User: What shape does this take?
Amino acid sequence: MGKVLTKNIRERINDLSETRYSQIEELNTPDVIFMFLGIDDSLSVALKHDPELVSYADKKRIALVSPSILHISIKQWLKTLAFRWSKRKCDQSVRRGTKISCQAAWIHRSYG
Assistant: This one.
């Protein structure tokens, strides 16, 4: 069963790599295609039978994704997004604060 699964995954990697989504101008896509394997164990079984599967997919610009990997990636992406959002708000507050202090200094020099 593992050999058949691995063979099918390699075939799908080949099929996906032949489709040049990144060259379709209207799609504005990244240079990597994410191949979702809906069952975590399917990726585990395939990797036991073919440890080079991830490297093979990577060479073809295919990222193998399972539900667990997707879940972890989304959680990390959300944390990164929250951090950047909070940093942006902080930067805006600093700029706003600097602007106010410059205006206060100008008023003080002008009328003080």
